[in-house]
Each structure stands twice: as structure tokens, then as C-alpha cells.
Amino acid sequence: MRLEASDFMNKKLKKILLKTGGRDAAGHVAVRHQGGGSKRYLREIDWKRNKVGITAKVIDFEYDPNRGAPLALLQYSDGERRYILAPEGLKIGDVVSSGPEAEIKVGNALPLGKIPIGTAVHCLEIKPGKGAQLVRGAGNAAYIMAKEKGKATVKLPSGELRLFSSQAMATIGQIGNIGRKGRILGKAGRKRRIGIRPTVRGVSQNPRSHPHGGGEGRSGIGMPSPVSRWGKKTLGLKTRKPKKYSDKLIVKRRK
């Protein structure tokens, strides 16, 4: 089979994803219920959108096995190719760009200070120039609620209101694959192919393996509230650091 020049360009954006099987450096199980799965490629995604003022054309859409959101392949006018998360409404042939002077349309990336209030955005930067860290899941979108004194108030998908720098970049639109949460895997074999091994209920194990185990017949968990395999509470226990750097930036909690 003959490979075109474009195929070699796309290969530069992919590398084989090494499997850990949930094991740490010592070979011990660090994350349970992981293992197996089909071979995957890790696609390099442009989280920074730092090609300011250079237009790019959408030439293809791809499925990425490592995330729920689809990817759009961009061909820049200088010949470079990059992947971005594909928002709803983006089509093959559309032209996108990034920077303060970019147009307010789906797929374009701009600083929050240049985006109108009420606009749906995704791929939000926490620290300007670091790259997108928030709102990257399938079907998600955040909304700009206010702008004042170099800060922008953004409502995140969780419902939390948070302050961001007006210089932080964000991409216009809602991420595609909105109906991902409603998908049905259909059979156990498909779960194995995505690298998820079977999960055994705690109540069906013996008491040496899980705190919920033991008892004659179906005797329940035997305690007021459920716990993990290591005895940590699983419902209602707060795991957030009591003094986190971003506490002062949170205007309203998600709960």
C-alpha cells in the first residue's frame, strides 16, 4: 500500500499509548479494574492554540479512543497540522483562527476578555499561556457571566462560578458528542476492549478482602455507611484540600 505525504504528516501527531494495566513502578496494582484493552494511539492535541493570526482549515474529523470528544484535524496556511477538540457545529471546510483579533465564531480561540458575555466556551486556561485545563469533556460548555477589572466570571459545567484572568484563552462553542452519557456498551466484551476489567461487589467478598464482606447469606454491608476496600468512607467525605490556591477565585460553590 502506498502512503501519501499527508499520511506521514498525520503520523507525527500520533504515538502508541503504553499500557500500565493499573500497575505502578513496582508492579503492584495501584488502580483496580484496569487491564487488557485494544491497542491505542495517543493523539497530540493543541491545547494552547498559540498560532495567533494564522488561519487553519478543518480537513477531517477523527474518533479518539482516549476521550469522549471527537477531534478535528486542522491544516494551517503555513502547512502545519494540529488536532483540536471538535465543537458542535464545526464542519469540514470551515476556517478557524486564534488570537485577540479572531472572529466570534465556533472553533475560534480568544482571550476571555474579548468574548461577549453569555457565550458558550470550552478548553479554558487556568493560567494564561499554560494551555486548556478545564471544560474538555464531551458535550460540556462553560458560560461567561461577567467581566470586571481584568477578571472574567465563568459558570463551569458543575454549576460553580469561578474567576479567571481576562487574558486566559478559551475556545468558542460546546464540545461535540453531546449524547455520550446515554451510550449503551451492549455487552461485557466491549467493556474489556476499552480496558476495563470486571468489578466484584464488596458484599460478595470475604471479610479479609473487603469491609462489606462476610455474614451468612445476603446480610448487607453491616455498617451505617459504605466504605472503600481500605475502610475510607465513600459517601459524603470531603476530599478537597482545606486550603487550596483556587479557593479565593471561587465565587459560588457547585453545591
Describe the structure concisely.
This protein is 5% helix and 24% strand. With 255 residues, it is mainly beta.
Task: Please render the helix and strand layout as text.
Blueprint lengths: L4 H7 L2 E3 L24 E3 L12 E7 L8 E6 L4 E5 L9 E2 L12 E3 L8 E3 L1 E2 L6 E3 L7 E7 L2 E5 L5 E5 L3 E4 L15 H6 L56 E3 L3
Antiparallel strand pairs: 1-2, 3-4, 3-6, 4-5, 7-14, 8-11, 8-14, 9-10, 11-12, 12-13, 13-15
Can you put this structure into words, describing what you see?
The chain is mainly beta and 255 residues long. It has 2 domains: 5-179, Nucleic acid-binding proteins (OB fold (Dihydrolipoamide Acetyltransferase, E2P)), CATH 2.40.50; 200-255, Ribosomal protein L2, domain 3 (Irregular). 5% of the residues lie in helices and 24% in strands. The chain has 2 helices and 15 strands. The protein has helices at 5-11, 188-193; strands at 14-16, 41-43, 56-62, 71-76, 81-85, 95-96, 109-111, 120-122, 124-125, 132-134, 142-148, 151-155, 161-165, 169-172, 250-252. The strands form 4 sheets. Strands 7-14-8-11-12-13-15 form a 7-stranded antiparallel β-sheet, with no helix packed on it. A 4-stranded antiparallel β-sheet has the order 5-4-3-6, with no helix packed on it. Strand 3 (56-62) and strand 4 (71-76) form a beta hairpin. The longest helix has 7 residues, at 5-11. It is globular, with a radius of gyration of 22 Å. The model has no long low-confidence stretch (mean pLDDT 93).
Write down the overall mean pLDDT.
Answer: 93
Proportion of helical residues: under 10%
The structure class reads mainly beta
Q: Segments where pLDDT lies below 50 for 5+ residues?
A: none
What is the tally of beta strands? Answer: 15
CATH-defined fold name of the largest domain:
OB fold (Dihydrolipoamide Acetyltransferase, E2P)
Q: What CATH architecture label of the largest domain applies? A: Beta Barrel
CATH superfamily of the largest domain: Nucleic acid-binding proteins
Order of helices and strands: HEEEEEEEEEEEEEEHE
Number of domains: 2
Strand content: 15-25%
Overall body shape: globular
According to CATH, what is the class of the largest domain?
Mainly Beta
Q: What is the spatial order of strands in the main beta sheet?
A: 7-14-8-11-12-13-15
Number of helices: 2
Sheet of most strands: 7 strands, antiparallel
Distance between the termini: 56 Å
Report the radius of gyration as a whole number of Å. Answer: 22 Å
